[in-house]
Amino acid sequence: MARMHARRRGTSGSVRPYRKDTPEWSNTDVQEIEKTIVDLRKNGMSSAEIGLTLRDKYGVPDVKLATGKRVSEILKEKGLESEIPEDLRNLMIKALGMRKHLSENKKDLHNKRQLQLTESKVRRLVRYYTGTGRLPKGWVYKPETAEILLSR
């Protein structure tokens, strides 16, 4: 499959081994895993960071295999889901960093182009999330208000 904004193909990446059940050495206590997820979320971690922490510190190679649910599903059940989806939030943070860089370096044309591409991805994701109901119908990305949205 081709890249989104380039006319070339992507490089292949590694794939996790296919498993139907958890390894015998892994931590499989569902209540303990869910409690850890909630604690990590209250400490301000995103769902991706929670997954990495569970893998590295708590011996849970795959949360979905251990609990039957994804990290985001567990957070949604507990009422700790963020207002803005994580992938959209990360793109907005990236765009804000580029805008800050452009305010200091006005002649950086490569960064200006990359900012256009990143904000295009943001708008595409907003359209997807408003269509699926994850964001309200009238939600629009505005660079001026993005910093306020992300601070919450």
TrEMBL record:
Stated family: Belongs to the universal ribosomal protein uS15 family.
Q: Which NCBIfam families match?
A: PRK08561.1
Q: For this UniProt record, give its keywords in alphabetical order, as a comma-separated list.
A: Ribonucleoprotein, Ribosomal protein
Indicate whether rRNA-binding appears among the record's keywords: no
A cellular-component GO term for this protein: ribosome
Region (Disordered) residue spans: 1-27
**Record carries keyword Phosphoprotein:** no
What is its quaternary makeup? Answer: Part of the 30S ribosomal subunit.
The protein, known as: Small ribosomal subunit protein uS15
**What SMART domains is this protein classified in?**
Ribosomal_S13_N (SM01386), Ribosomal_S15 (SM01387)
Q: Give the Basic residues compositional bias ranges.
A: 1-10
Q: Which organism is it from?
A: Methanoculleus frigidifontis
Q: InterPro entries from the entry?
A: Ribosomal_uS15, Ribosomal_uS15_arc_euk, Ribosomal_uS15_N, uS15_NS1_RNA-bd_sf
Domain (Small ribosomal subunit protein uS15 N-terminal) spans: 1-60
